Amino acid sequence: MKQQYKRGYILSVAILSFLILDINAQNKDSLSIKGFKELSNLFHKHKKDSLLSLSIAKIYLQKAKSKKDTIKMAKGFHYLSIVNKSNDSLFLGYNDSIIESTKLVKTEFFPVTAYFNKGDYFYKNRLFYKSLENYLLAVKSTSNEKYSNIIKHRLGLLKSRYNKNKEYLMLLKEVYSYNKRNNYEKEYVDYHLSILFALSDAYLRNKKNDSARYFCSIGYAKSIENNRKLFKNYFRLEKGVIEFWDKNYKTAIDSINLAIPEIIKAKDLANLSYANFYLGKSFDKLNNEKKALSYFEKVDSIYFLSKDIHPDLREGYEFVIKYYREKDNPEKELVYVRKLLDLDQYFSKNYKSITNYFNKEYDTPKLLFKQKEIVKSLKKENTLQGWLLLFSIILVFSAIFFGVYNFKKRKVYKKRFQEILKETKKDKLRTTKKDKREKEKELALPQKKIDEILQKLKSFEEGKRYLEQDITLNSLAKSLETNTSYLSKVINYYKKLSFSNYLNTLRIEYIIEELKENKTYRKYTVKALAHEVGFKNAESFSKAFYNLKGIKPSYFIKELNKG
Question: pLDDT higher for 416 or 385?
Fold first, then answer.
């Protein structure tokens, strides 16, 4: 009875799976006959359904490619980037493809959106110099005032991190004026409040305290009027900072302390860090060193959690080092010396051109360390000169060696490129013919089974199923209704390749033909080409291409474009 039930259950599951597959196939067919506008509407309607929106985006892109419509292709890449927002590699790859494909055909929407998306991605990941690069490219690539305005806001926030305060204020004033003209304060309340907060901060950084206070009070009133509790407390924090710079230290402490509970509730570590920093500075001005120390140490604790800190807050570490030095506590001093060195490395990595930012009150540990190194280096001057001479000689010979090596390598690459161009489809992967008895004997398989597998492999190749991702020996054996041992033997014997090399060869030969015939593919990034032919990433694609053809795909495309 149990066995009968089990068989019935398995049969039910099999029927259900077949029906689901059939429905999915029907859905795909029904989508493929729809026009671009319908597909766009469907994509936006089903954004939350990741599988359906992915199918729609892929079909949209396929249609665009078949019609060789660059703008529609860019839109397809944009939809795919939205679906793959959580996958860093794919998200950046699709935005790169938008940029590459619209270099010569700019629109109101492209490539500005791709640069903006990349700018936001790098900002979120605290790679500010990369974020800045992409926002600047976004501004250059659009004439749309609305897009420019949003990007200017982002640029302004970045300028504050780079201590470019005049530029910060200029950008925020432009953004504020545009928002007022277009009545955004009513249409986009939160966005307008964030502009007021940034504008007040920009005036304060330019030592225009009265203007900072004016816009802060407007923001505070608007927050209450629109029932925005968090923004109300952001403006309380800003008021506290303004009071500090107006030397009203006790009022500053009261205002900041009122703001902190709501900022903690919002888990806004950046502004919480800022609040503690100004509490520390206020208590320092009131000559309460212990209180000041506790708040500056809180700033460090928040940095440990968030892995991000505004460059303004570096000053707090100098206070802590100085405090422990004066209290003759070398262990604690050393702890914060090391933390400050780590912090400077963080700034160097994430900001790059920030070295002239800081106005240091005293020699930083880095400079002290450098001074010691200079003293040591003077003692070793003679030895150093000898080493420098030897190093120079090595550099000269290395330059000659690499020059010759690169010249030879270019010649070899050029020859290989010409050989690939001369290849025809007949030269590609062939099935080796063997004597019937010899085959059966070597493979230990009946001829009927061999012929059956070969025929199915032929269908697999003709149907270009090798372009699908995640194909394994096991999955292919199942789809060909054989086992991995038989399939592996036949491929090894007739194709003279291992399974992975067989799959890679089919994919590489396919993309080479496409690149020769279809100029659109030459605009793709290497990453986008890799995904087109079933590779998971650009590295594995480039390696497979090089192993098969002896040159990199980027070189092959560059040489094709020359022709």
Answer: 416
